[in-house]
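Hi Y.,

Following your request, here is the sequence exactly as I used it, all 93 residues.
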Amino acid sequence: ADWTIFYWAWWISWAPFVGSFIARISRGRSVREFVIGVVLAPTLLGFFWFSVFGGTAIWMQIFGQADLVQALGNGYETVLFTMFDSMPLPLLL
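Below is the corresponding structure, written out as tokens. Let me know if you'd prefer a different format.
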């Protein structure tokens, strides 16, 4: 309900480009390889990302390593960087 016409148009305008890109890099592959590369791999990567970083954020909040709830007051984008700053060796991240 919060999305404007601009966001809908943005997604619709990118659909042909993404479709043609996926079709081009998938040429010569089987349907099984296509499904694994387009559906399964991104799903597993997303599951891994949310499991690791979500679990780390919950652990840091519970055990007082970082106050991520306070960082959330400054905006969603600051929470990830606050979490990274609270980790050991933040310069590497």
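The chain has a mean pLDDT of 90.

Thanks again,
Q.
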